[in-house]
Amino acid sequence: MSRVLILCLSVLFAGGQAGAEERVALVIGNSDYRQFSTLENPRNDALDVSVALRGLGFDVLLEVDVTKARLDGVIERFAKAAEGADAVLFFYAGHGFQAEGRNYLIPADAEIRSAADVMTQTAALDLVLGAMARSDGVKLVFLDACRDNPFGATLEQEARLGKGLARVGTEADFLFAYATQPDNVAYDGTGRNSFFTDALLHHIYTPGQDIQQMMIGVRRDVLAATGGKQIPWENSSLTRQFRFDDGPQSISEESMLYQLAVKAGDPQLLSLYVDRYPAGSHVQEAVAFLETGGGTRALTPTEDADRLWELARRSRMRPLVEVFLERYPSNAKADEARRLLASIPRPEDALPGTICQRLATHPRDATGENPGVPFDRLQGNALNAIRACSAAAARSPELPHYVALLARATAAAGDLAQAVRLYRDAAARGDLRAMVSLAQLYETGTGVDPDPQEAITLYRRAAEGGSHDAMINLAISMLESGGADSAEAITLLKRAASKGSAKARYNLGVLAQDGQVDDPAAALEYFTEAAHDGAPEGYLAAAILLDEGRGVPRDPGRAANMLLRGAAEDRGEVVQQLTTAAGQWSRETITETQERLKAAGYYTSMVDGLPGQNFSTALAQWRIGGFVAQVLVN
Fold first, then answer.
1. What is 99-123 written as a DSSP string?
2. Domain for residue 280, yes or no?
3. Do 355 and 500 lie in a common domain?
4. pTM exceeds 0.85 for this model
């Protein structure tokens, strides 16, 4: 039995931190400066991060617009709290700078008129690090403080002052997460939160995720949201793993919402799914369910409150939090839900940048907050997108990504010539999405004269800037042409995979199973990681390897787990395989799958490893709700 794959352009409950672990945090957000212009985001960033951390079991010291005198006392309180703690976290949003390789935080009441004032009016980050060092536990430092030099002409000629923040190195068990690379500056954001904090808030609740994997997701989101103009960075000396949420690894938020909605037959949640995930794996099923009037009841307090709350806080979808509070106002999590709701802007308060990204983001630039919009859907809303993106580009001229989004909306409206001009402008100013989109136009000769060499040049520029799409497109082109470029193609795919590209991991799995990279045994890891990173087709590919023993020992039990994960998350390929092509699977793997479905209450026939109507029905029922209530182990 040989099934061919080609290159392509455990779960819900039990979430939460370890019960016996002591966690403390100091969170500071300085927006209202006496000397400098007000920063829009830091106050919100601190408030919202404090809500998340409290929900994850941290005792939080929160300070907003803290003065120099108060800051000294707060650091001492933090130091005492850190003693004996298992995890200690410091989050700072506001102005910060470096001088002679040391980092300084600027209190709200600082008045800096000369170089001599720098040391007396600011607080050295070293003071905070010294307080954290009193703990023998994990120490996490998040610095959203790399905004541009606030001093202006006052200290413009001061040679000791550097750009952004300096890299910090210290003893073991520290992790430093910067909003952008050392010696660079970050943007203040165009919505309620900065780009960095917004991404952090959308990944911090993901269960079963190590912090360094979380930072890959944060980095990927910020790069996508800014078109590559800002790339978060971390420096770690951790000697142990740390997870904000120690619950078992979960399926995607998208599949969680679908299964919760359809299992309950809740039309409000199904409509929310369709609106939120217009290109989702289950969107056709959700639409069909709504059109046939399948939604006849709603969530019930006894069986659905915990599930809805976990999904609401993880996704930060305002409608989900509102539904939770509306239906479960007396729930134990209601107060936390109200605090979370206060931190999520209402749709009518959204700024142009937020609206532009929601309406025009390319699906390949999907983030934790924004899944992206297919081109055909954008075509139906192009004028609204053009208005929002034009306003966003005017408000934030330093971010060419809004021009790139405006170009995509303009192309959707049918004005390809203007779209090309906008793409060229954004690409010239460093936007990665504009480079990739323009390269694709040159490849196909759409709106421009065909120019394969110009396409390659643009792909290379975008790849150097960090674009996963550019790396993958270049790699696939090289592999298809053959020759000496195959080694470079593999390097590009591995680079994209290391930066969190699920598509790159999947393609590496295809190459590994064919012996073109690493070895066949590596294919299983590539496929599994791809699935966990957002490419659910990886589950089916991994199941095939485990079922056949191709490059790895046969493991029908694990193959069954992969199949059930894929059945919950993919576009229906696993269910189709097991119903229309069941003969391609070993009897042992079918048996293991039947046993799991029987334990879940979906399969009622004899466990015999043979397909049949009851098996097909059980798989269909699992797809629309089984994973919400079951835990599987890889």
1. ETTEEEE--TT----SHHHHHHHSE
2. no
3. no
4. yes
